[in-house]
């Protein structure tokens, strides 16, 4: 002890001293050493003391304070004697620095009473770079790793900037001044810049980040070497955790210090082209993040890598294509200069074979629009991509596309000052959304209904603003969208009526019959929602809820009440939903009832809205400011507005049944435009069908009556039609006074010289149809003399016409007036017959005349004095009149088989417009009022002739007509058979309703088709097969209804029947089992072949082999 020299004022220290005394002496010594400056050679006498301080007895002393003071003293010794420390033994040096590292752990708690001494220790070690002594040690990296690990572990939020700065000063020289940086040390640093440490240990991340920035020049070659080893060689470095997070590391380093990656990033191109999907996916995810980030310049700096990345949009892996598309949004938002490249890739991916990729394309564009509307608004291409996906085969994609477009349209409504691309897009967005109602799925229909009320005409708007949006919508959409809107409203009306009937049952006492009726209503309602089975379960539950909660029942009745206001409906809907539990996706009960509420709630129009809307329409008709405010074209605004009122009067008649609304409508009739009155009168007619207007507003109807009388006598044909219907529906008390007076007036007008000749014909037809029992004999005489003799069978021209010099078709307005009168005369005869209902003799005579028009191609007298276009119109009018009459039981049953076959020839008429219009009339007749008020099933056989249609557009239209008629009849059959009490009745009706029986009528129609006369000819056989397959395809393919046994039996039964026209003609019939040269004999094998091929029995037969076989077998 005597050999150790202590500084003045310091007393000796040893391990045999008590802890308190030792601490007092160490404090004095530490204070003295702290005051010493660096003076080379001045303190040689204290070297033994320095050695003594590093004895194990002090380094391992049980007192924490003793260890801290010893550490401070040693740190001062290292400072005073720097750069030559008195410690020479390498083991001792290692022990000392590991001891110092252990003491530095005290820095973790700045609130510790001894923190100042720990801070002094850190500052001292940093000031003279004490740890640099370890460079000469073989295992210096072990010491450095321990130090780095400790610093990253203890750094926290409570440390001041100075503490963190000194930590950095301690660590950075160990990298910058070292001859090498070990992988272990590099791993410790880099692991703190990636997840989860980046998030969970934010201070360690910031320290590592600053350290990398400060030592980047030194670290760069080591980092590059590491990436070369992992990326190029594909080998993991042993015991290095960061190897598993190499892509995350590149991403973080690019943010922290991008220059260290200048040589690394080009190496990623090989990963993009790797045979391993996981490697490509990792590289794609990394580069997508790096390229797409805001302010990133990587795409410009590494163009080759950017091009390689774009190539991954077409990767064979779905996951990789999906990942690329998911990042498209960030590119579109953050990099205007890259939008063209991204748009080009999305153009390909929107047609991707995988639905998830297509879905992500839509989501990328829609999400971009939500975050920055301007980006998508500026690009017509992006909007077009979404537009195309509204027709995707997957609903979830259609849903997002439609919702995205609707959101864009709604933003346009709120901000008219948008780019030209958006202005152009909104012209088709609303059409496209409404066109979605034509989709077969119930989900699509509910989606369109929701979007209509939330985006196209937002229900939250004020009434006046909402009506402006509705007027703008219906004033600018195309014809198909308008029809979809009307169909939507009608469907919702049907559901409302069904719900009201269902709710009414809940007021009755519970009984077996009531329970049965409730079950039927629930079954019907469940078919109005997606997934009917689940819907049935939750609607049954809701029915029980309604029974128990009278307030809930009252609210539901309020929602479905026809006269409810929009606000009342909205409030009642909210009350109902509050009683159904939490509005979460897992609450299926809530979501099912919510869907039902969306279908029945009326939040678009009410009495106030109708009053405002009529005001807007009137102002547009007068050329007022509303035209500009609503954004409509002056030439069409008034007409579109009136048609909108007609639609709304059909669906919401109760909102019109107010004196102020009726007054407004009467005012419209005083406007000069001749096109106004027919539409306004249609409104009155629909209102009268709901409730007779004369009963509610007799004074107003007294004012309307003379107007209708005048229009019926001297107005246009359309005005006359509307006037008669309005009088008939709304003024029953005035029938005796008005109809005879009108009839007397039109008798004098039923001559070609009268300017009101055509009007008189129309008026006569509608009076005969609506009130056939009034003046029955008088009307019959007028029809016989004035319509038949003086109009239809009278030829006024003297000169024959060369048919080669005129067109086969023209618009109806371009027809000569005489021919237009004949067309109306044919319609009037049909209406007269429909009114008579049971006059079979008149029906037979009329059918013979109509048949003559068709048989003679429209030229009844065959004088050759009619234009081809006139003949086309006349035979079309005759055919349509026959179809109309055939809808009515009684008079409609009087046509003969020959007339039936002759009428079918209009399906293959030489003029395409005749074919198109006749098919439309056929479809309309087949779909009207199943099962008793429509055309019989016989007429569905006409569709077989459309198999010969050469115009693809017309063929597709007719095919859609047929599919609609087939589905409508099958749905009706399903409804019929579900009513358990009427099963026998249902089965008896099936042959008259089931569309499969159309085959029974198609065969004789084809057999009597003049164009298929040579049944031993391959060409005719092929055409017959095309005709049959045209109707059989929707019946036998991809359908649960197909039954091979049914068709086989049907064909066998048809073989036993004779031709109705020529029952004794062997050329048209079978003789037992012997085949004669018979058209039907050939058709039956064709049908058998088609059906058996579908059933898999003739899977190897080709059409060529078929025609050869049946050409020679008979």
UniProtKB/TrEMBL annotation:
It is found in: Nucleus. Signal peptide: none annotated. GO terms for cellular component: chromatin; nucleus. One of its GO terms (biological process) is cell division. Keywords: Cell cycle, Cell division, Mitosis, Nucleus. Coiled coil: none annotated. The keyword Nucleus applies. This is Uncharacterized protein. It comes from Photinus pyralis. The lineage of its organism: Eukaryota, Metazoa, Ecdysozoa, Arthropoda, Hexapoda.
């Amino acid at each position: 002890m005597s050999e150790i020299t202590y500084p003045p004022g310091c007393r000796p220290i040893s391990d045999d001293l008590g802890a308190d005394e030792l601490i007092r002496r160490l404090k004095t010594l530490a204070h003295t050493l702290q005051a010493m400056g660096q003076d080379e050679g001045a303190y040689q006498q204290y070297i033994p003391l320095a050695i003594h301080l590093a004895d194990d007895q002090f380094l391992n002393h049980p007192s924490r304070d003793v260890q801290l003071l010893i550490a401070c003293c040693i740190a001062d010794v290292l400072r005073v004697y720097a750069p030559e420390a008195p410690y020479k033994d390498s083991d001792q040096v290692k022990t000392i620095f590991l001891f110092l590292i252990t003491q530095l752990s005290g820095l973790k708690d700045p609130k510790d009473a001894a923190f100042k001494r720990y801070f002094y220790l850190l500052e001292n070690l940093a000031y003279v770079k004490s740890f640099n002594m370890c460079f000469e040690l073989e295992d210096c990296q072990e010491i450095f790793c321990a130090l780095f690990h400790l610093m990253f572990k203890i750094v926290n939020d409570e440390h001041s900037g100075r503490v963190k700065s000194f930590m950095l000063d301690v660590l950075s020289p160990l990298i910058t001044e070292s001859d090498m940086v070990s992988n272990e040390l590099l791993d410790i640093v880099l692991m703190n810049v990636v997840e989860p440490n980046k998030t969970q240990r934010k201070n360690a991340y910031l320290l590592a980040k600053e350290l990398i920035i400060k030592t980047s020049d030194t670290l760069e070659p080591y980092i590059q070497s590491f990436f070369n080893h992992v990326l190029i060689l594909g080998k993991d470095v042993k015991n290095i955790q960061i190897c598993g997070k190499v892509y995350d590391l590149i991403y973080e380093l690019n943010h922290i210090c991008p220059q260290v990656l200048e040589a690394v990033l080009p190496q990623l191109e090989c990963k993009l082209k790797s045979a391993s999907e996981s490697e490509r996916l990792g590289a794609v995810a990394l580069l997508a993040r790096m390229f797409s980030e805001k302010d990133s310049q990587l795409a410009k700096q590494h163009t080759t890598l950017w091009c390689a990345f774009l190539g991954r949009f077409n990767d064979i892996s779905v996951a990789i294509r999906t990942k690329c598309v998911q990042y498209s949004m960030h590119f579109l938002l953050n990099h205007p200069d890259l939008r063209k490249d991204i748009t080009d890739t999305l153009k390909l991916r929107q047609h991707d074979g995988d639905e998830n990729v297509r879905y992500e394309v839509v989501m990328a564009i829609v999400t971009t629009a939500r975050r920055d509307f301007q980006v998508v608004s500026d690009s017509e291409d992006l909007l077009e991509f979404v537009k195309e996906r509204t027709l995707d085969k997957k609903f979830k994609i259609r849903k997002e596309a439609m919702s995205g477009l609707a959101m864009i349209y709604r933003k346009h409504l709120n901000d008219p000052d948008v780019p030209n691309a958006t202005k152009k897009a909104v012209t088709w967005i609303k059409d496209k959304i409404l066109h979605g109602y034509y989709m077969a799925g119930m989900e699509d229909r509910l989606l369109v209904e929701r979007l209509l009320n939330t985006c196209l005409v937002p229900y939250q708007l004020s009434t006046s603003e909402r009506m402006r949006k509705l007027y703008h919508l219906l004033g600018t959409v195309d014809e198909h969208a308008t029809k979809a809107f009307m169909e939507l409203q009608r469907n919702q009306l049907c559901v409302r009526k069904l719900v009201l009937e269902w709710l009414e049952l809940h007021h009755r006492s519970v009984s077996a019959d009531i329970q049965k009726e409730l079950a039927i209503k629930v079954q019907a309602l469940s078919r109005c929602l997606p997934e009917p089975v689940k819907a049935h379960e939750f609607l049954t539950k809701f029915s029980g809820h309604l029974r128990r909660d009278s307030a809930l029942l009252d609210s539901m009745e309020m929602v479905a009440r026809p006269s409810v206001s929009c606000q009342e409906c909205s409030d009642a809907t909210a009350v109902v939903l509050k009683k159904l539990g939490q509005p979460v996706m897992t609450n299926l009960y809530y979501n099912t009832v919510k869907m039902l509420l969306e279908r029945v709630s009326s939040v678009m129009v009410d009495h106030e809205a109708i009053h405002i809307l009529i005001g807007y329409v009137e102002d547009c008709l007068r050329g007022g400011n509303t035209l500009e405010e609503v954004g409509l074209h002056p030439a069409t605004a008034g007409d579109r507005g009136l048609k909108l009122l007609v639609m709304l009067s059909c669906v919401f008649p109760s909102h019109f049944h107010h004196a102020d609304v009726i007054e407004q409508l009467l005012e419209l009739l005083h406007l000069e435009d001749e096109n106004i009155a027919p539409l306004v009168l249609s409104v009155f007619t629909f209102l009268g069908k709901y409730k007779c207007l004369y009963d509610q507003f007799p004074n107003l109807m007294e004012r309307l009556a003379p107007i209708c009388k005048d229009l019926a006598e001297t107005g246009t044909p359309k005005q006359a039609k509307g006037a008669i219907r309005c009088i008939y529906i709304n003024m029953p008390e005035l029938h005796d006074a008005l109809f005879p007076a009108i009839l007397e007036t039109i008798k004098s007008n039923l001559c070609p010289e009268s300017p009101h000749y055509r009007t008189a014909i129309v008026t006569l037809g509608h009076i005969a149809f609506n009130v056939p029992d009034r003046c029955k004999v008088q009307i019959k005489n007028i029809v016989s003399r004035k319509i038949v003799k003086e109009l239809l069978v009278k030829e006024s021209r003297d000169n024959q016409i060369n048919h080669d010099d005129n067109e086969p078709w023209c618009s109806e307005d371009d027809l000569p007036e005489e021919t237009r009168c004949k067309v109306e005369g044919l319609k009037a005869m049909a209406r007269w017959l429909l009114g008579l209902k049971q006059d079979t003799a008149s029906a037979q005579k009329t059918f013979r005349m109509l048949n003559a028009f068709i048989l003679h191609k429209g030229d009844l007298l065959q004088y050759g004095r009619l234009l081809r276009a006139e003949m086309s119109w006349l035979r079309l009018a005759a055919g349509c009149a026959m179809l109309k009459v055939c809808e009515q039981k009684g008079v409609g049953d009087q046509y003969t088989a020959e007339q039936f076959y002759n009428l079918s020839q209009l399906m293959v008429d030489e003029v395409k417009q005749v074919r198109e219009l006749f098919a439309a009339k056929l479809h309309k007749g087949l779909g009207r009022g199943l099962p008793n008020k429509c055309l019989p099933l016989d007429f569905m056989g006409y569709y077989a002739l459309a198999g010969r249609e050469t115009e693809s557009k017309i063929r597709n239209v007719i095919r859609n007509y047929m599919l609609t008629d087939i589905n409508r009849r099958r749905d009706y059959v399903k409804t019929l058979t579900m009513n358990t009490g009427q099963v026998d009745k249902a089965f008896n009706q099936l042959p008259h309703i089931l569309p499969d029986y159309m085959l029974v009528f198609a065969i004789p129609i084809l057999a009597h088709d003049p164009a298929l006369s040579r049944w031993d000819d391959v060409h005719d056989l092929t055409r017959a097969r095309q005709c049959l397959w045209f109707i059989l395809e929707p019946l036998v393919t991809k359908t649960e209804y197909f039954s091979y046994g049914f068709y086989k039996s049907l064909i066998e039964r048809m073989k036993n029947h004779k031709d109705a026209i020529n029952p004794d003609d062997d050329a048209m019939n079978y003789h037992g089992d012997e085949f004669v040269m018979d058209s039907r004999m050939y058709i039956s094998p064709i049908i058998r072949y088609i059906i058996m091929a579908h059933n898999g029995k003739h899977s190897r037969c080709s059409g060529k082999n078929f025609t050869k076989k049946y050409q020679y077998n008979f």
